[in-house]
Inverse folding.
């Protein structure tokens, strides 16, 4: 889904641009996926599992931009990619079309500046425009920063998925399931 770029002021006074990706962003996005997967245990991939080539990533970016029911949104500060958030439909069947699934990750250098909040607020607006009634997410039970952000943005805890994730050290984590009604 295409959308207009938006500028927001960060807590440190800098300006952040929230915008759709273009094919020129493909290489920076692959680097970002690998780096953030190494910086935090809370994303679904390990760095060695990010195997896209730039041309595969370009194809994904094009598909996401042309899909009226999904959004990928980049956050850029001083011309540098700070992170990314987005949503995709929970499914194309009629029984699932009212829900979308949300995800977000920022480089560590850009945490606590207000980017996460701004991405969620703008993504919720676009999800409403796309016709969704509810935004869902799942988050590691020990990801206190993300859980605090989601609660601040109005997400409600609805349950748990037992042992949803198994880390390479053999330990398990539950997913906390959360949803945000978009019809209020
Ligand atoms: C989760 C994440 C997106 C938060 O983004 P952010 O831009 O740092 O969040 P914001 O600056 O908008 O913070 C909003 C609120 O969230 C809460 N919060 C954010 N980081 C926090 C932290 N480290 N500890 C406690 N609360 C935190 C606070 O309530 C904060 O409000 P405040 O700054 O006024 O106190 C970011 O930490 C991140 O990318 N983490 C790594 C990837 C990840 O975990 N993704 C989520 C997977 S489900």
């Amino acid at each position: 889904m295409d959308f207009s770029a938006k500028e927001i002021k960060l807590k440190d006074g800098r300006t952040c641009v929230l915008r759709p990706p273009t094919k020129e962003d493909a290489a920076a996005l692959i680097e970002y996926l690998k780096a953030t997967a190494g910086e935090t245990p809370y994303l679904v991939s390990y760095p060695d599992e990010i195997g896209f080539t730039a041309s595969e990533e370009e194809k994904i970016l094009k598909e996401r931009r042309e899909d009226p029911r999904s959004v990928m949104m980049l956050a850029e500060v001083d011309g540098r990619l700070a992170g990314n958030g987005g949503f995709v439909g929970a499914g194309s069947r009629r029984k699932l079309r009212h829900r979308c699934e949300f995800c977000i990750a920022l480089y560590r250098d850009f945490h606590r500046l207000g980017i996460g909040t701004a991405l969620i607020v703008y993504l919720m607006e676009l999800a409403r425009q796309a016709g969704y009634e509810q935004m869902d997410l799942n988050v590691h039970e020990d990801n206190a920063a993300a859980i605090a952000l989601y609660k601040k943005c109005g997400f409600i805890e609805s349950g748990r998925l037992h042992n949803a994730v198994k880390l390479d050290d053999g330990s398990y984590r539950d997913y906390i399931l959360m949803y945000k009604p978009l019809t209020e």
Remarks:
- The beta strands are 6-9, 15-19, 71-77, 80-89, 99-106, 134-140, 156-166, 172-181.
- The longest strand covers residues 156-166.
